[in-house]
From TrEMBL:
Residues the record lists as binding NADP(+): G167, R168, S169
Chain ranges of the Tetrahydrofolate dehydrogenase/cyclohydrolase NAD(P)-binding domain: 140-287
Name by which UniProt lists this protein: Bifunctional protein FolD
HAMAP family the record matches: THF_DHG_CYH (MF_01576)
UniProt source species: Zavarzinia compransoris
Pathway listed: One-carbon metabolism; tetrahydrofolate interconversion
UniProt keywords, alphabetically: Amino-acid biosynthesis, Histidine biosynthesis, Hydrolase, Methionine biosynthesis, Multifunctional enzyme, NADP, One-carbon metabolism, Oxidoreductase, Purine biosynthesis
Molecular function in Gene Ontology: methenyltetrahydrofolate cyclohydrolase activity; methylenetetrahydrofolate dehydrogenase (NADP+) activity
Length: 296
């Protein structure tokens, strides 16, 4: 069997277009323009690229993009003051503080200060709690994007399928598990202490890899026909020593020979993350204005 490749880049482009249509209607009918504020601390080159992409895609969707930069050595209080100002700003519907933060800053403390209604990353404990109890809240972008790709391939009925999520981070693994549980999958969360991970992975109809270990998931870990979602973003040196290349947590060629559907890296989950960020910003703006939240 050879897997069908899930084109996350194309799916994300479609999602961004649907967001843009809703944004245009909001502007015409209600004079409302959703606004996303991104705060970047320090000068990590990769973070700069991500933040620039976010700003460009925000504007392309017809929304306002606000960018704030703080130097690497800024005191934590400067970031907290910035977040407080954005919480109070009615033109800002979404706030994203780019992670990771410099070591002298406490990410949990910063996220805790973000108004949960503006927390478009879905990282605030209020939003994590809402997801856990099945209440409406803001869902983290990467797992939300993964779920959209899974539903695109398996249809809306995921009930009873075995899902294995490798990785237990607050940003991907845990919310991914909650979302799949909400879909009535039988969910197992695996991690570094899990025994016989290959056998467990082979039981999965839906296998999500979010560990940050390059090409860890081998072909013989995959159940024939499974849907394999690769959240990994690992930069490794090229074989010929000329620079780096991006690989996922899944050994793509091996896994694709066995899976039914598989996401590539790049061009899979990554583009969905930013598209879902725009969707979450639209959702937050509608909710703030008391307008119905569009289905995307
Ligand atoms: N508060 C916060 N929220 C985030 O959502 C957040 C963050 N901090 N810090 C950094 C990570 C990383 N991240 C990515 C988003 C898009 C791609 C993406 O679009 N990747 C493309 C291209 C990758 C490339 O070529 O470099 C792809 O996979 O095809 C990747 C990574 C969001 N993050």
């Amino acid at each position: 069997m050879t897997a069908a490749i899930i084109d996350g880049k194309a799916f994300a482009a479609g999602l961004r277009q649907r967001v843009a249509q809703h944004v245009a209607r909001l502007r015409e009918d209600h004079g409302l323009v959703p606004g996303l504020a991104v705060v970047l601390v320090g000068d990590d080159p990769a973070s700069h690229v991500y933040v620039r992409n976010k700003g460009e895609q925000t504007k392309a969707a017809g929304m306002n993009s606000f960018e704030f930069r703080l130097p690497d050595d800024a005191p934590e209080s400067a970031l907290l003051e910035r977040v407080a100002a954005l919480n109070a700003d009615p033109a800002v519907h979404g706030i994203l503080v780019q992670l990771p933060l410099p070591k002298h800053m406490d990410a949990a403390k910063v996220i805790d200060l973000i108004d949960p209604a503006k927390d478009v990353d879905g990282f605030h404990v209020v939003n994590a709690g809402k997801l856990a109890v099945g209440a409406d809240g803001i869902v983290p972008c990467t797992p939300l994007g993964c779920l959209m790709l899974i539903r695109d391939r398996l249809g809306p009925r995921l009930a009873g399928l075995n899902a294995v999520v490798i990785g237990r981070s607050n940003i991907v693994g845990k919310p991914m598990a909650q979302l799949l549980l909400r879909e009535s999958c039988t969910v197992t969360v695996a991690h570094s202490k899990t025994r016989d991970l290959p056998a467990l992975a082979r039981s999965a109809d839906i296998l999500v890899a979010a560990v940050g270990v390059p090409e860890m998931v081998k072909g013989d870990w995959v159940k024939p026909g499974a849907v394999v979602i690769d959240v990994g973003m690992n930069r490794i040196p090229k074989a010929d020593g000329s620079g780096t290349r991006l690989v996922g947590d899944v050994a793509f060629a091996e896994a694709a020979a066995v899976a039914g559907h598989i996401t590539p890296v790049p061009g899979g989950v990554g583009p969905m993350t930013i598209a879902c960020l725009l969707a979450n910003t639209l959702t937050a703006a509608c909710a703030r204005a008391g307008l119905p939240v569009p289905a995307l």
